[in-house]
Amino acid sequence: MGLYLVLLGVQGAGKGEQAKFIQTTYGIPQVSTGDLFRAMKTRTDDLARRIQETMAAGKLIDDATTNEVVRERLAMDDAKGGVILDGYPRTPAQAEWLEAHLREKGERVSAVILFKLDYYTAFKRAFGRVSDASGGTYNIYYNRDGIASDSMDAHPEKQFPPRLVVKLKSGETAIRRPDDADANAIIKRIDTFISTTAPLIEHYDAKGLLHAINADQPIEDVSSELKALIDSVRA
Question: Taking the model in full, what pTM does it have?
């Protein structure tokens, strides 16, 4: 049997970091529908054109098309031993399709892992995240070594609220992802997670596939707990 893992967690819960750990430890690829859709920009087949047209119109990719893209990816050689699914499924309907598709191949979802993190901490992890030019990461709330942050008036007549400016000890301004610097965008992403993920949690919990891990602990501790969980479902 292959190892098919579904990762759930609000932004800031560390899914990306733990997906890398799983890839290295178990040798299975990470599959993100967002990445798959973006890759369609370089293709000219009918499926790719259909997705390009939908995205250009600002519409959501429907379940059937999303499932078709996932089916194509799971058929690739590097996915024969399993995959890490991140961002898919997004709906119970997609979850049902995935389970049926794997069943046809004599496979099943091994575990659905929910990285639990309270939403206030999730906000601080995202809003406080900065990096330097070499890729070093910091957080104004949790990892301030090497940085200094301050509020700066964004308008001479103070018609706008102050903005956060983070400087490295070298004096350079730290790099912030535009979506992390926008507090409203972060809140919207958290709201979207709550509304879309709750039905999935219920779906997988009812099937006995849901496993929760406390994401509010050091990365190494999360990885250790994650490995013990994965080893238990593979046994």
Answer: 0.85
